[in-house]
Specification:
With 267 residues, the chain is of the alpha/beta class. The protein has a single domain (3-266), classed as Nucleoside phosphorylase domain (Rossmann fold, 3-Layer(aba) Sandwich), CATH 3.40.50.1580. The protein has helices at 3-20, 95-107, 161-170, 190-199, 209-217, 242-266, and strands at residues 27-31, 44-50, 68-73, 79-84, 112-121, 132-140, 175-181, 203-205, 221-231. The chain has a 5-stranded mixed beta barrel with strand order 5-8-7-6-9. Helix 2 (95-107) crosses helix 5 (209-217). The chain is globular, with a radius of gyration of 17 Å. The model has no long low-confidence stretch (mean pLDDT 94). The chain binds hypoxanthine. Hypoxanthine is lined by residues 118-120, 187-188, 204-206, 229-230, 232, 240, 245.
Length: 267
Amino acid sequence: MTKDAYTLAGTAATALRGAAGLDTFDVALVMGSGWVPAADAIGETVAEIAFTELPGFRAPAVAGHGGKIRVVRTPSGRHALIFLGRTHLYEGLGVDAVVHGVRTAAAAGVRTLVLTNAAGGLRPETQDVGDPVLISDHINLTGANPITGTTFIDLTEVYSRRLRALVREIEPGLAEGVYVAFRGPTYETPAEIRMLRTLGGDMVGMSTVLESIAAREAGLEVLGLSLVTNPGAGLSGEPLNHEEVLEVGRATAARMGVLLAKVVDRL
Ligand code: HPA
């Protein structure tokens, strides 16, 4: 938002390079709720740095978000930054805190960003719980934007068509969908879910959109993946809870890990 936020990300990037013992990184991945257990499949751990060791980062407030950056070497020798956890807008720390990791990764040399999240499915007719969905576009209903001022960023292709095609070469049957974000932390009402279906949304969650905007501002190529952890409120007759979201993540960790490892190795 202010120049200071970008300066702080530069400072954090310098600290990150020092702590990792590396000058640059090829790719960054943000592991959303449910995705943290999948991180183990991506490569061999070179270093792990607690968020609290780096300028501008906070320990995550949510159970199931790990609170550290893992530096990983993939089988083909690429270096990945894996953010085990993220800051959400609903934590009340402001929008700069939400996108600090993305700005830090960009300042550390990353050119490709993989954003993952857990999401409610808005299309139970075609989506099963435990399915990954490629994010093709988003609708930002958070009421926030990481950019302030006259920087008019084009969002025609936030989620790279090239990267989506590459993922579909690995997993041809993967569905694509539009991700809608609310601020949270409440889950949606059934009326809101009906509205989002009418608006053309396919998944709903509380993250990703602000990070992807900040990434596009920084010129990164973005890949987005949702894990459908539940049907949206009112679509199944069951109440929603965070434990269920984490449980679906644990149950699908192996499958998501294999998918991410293949994707990262081919970027
Ligand atoms: N709504 C919002 N965020 C979510 C959901 C949901 O149904 N499931 C997982 N994250």
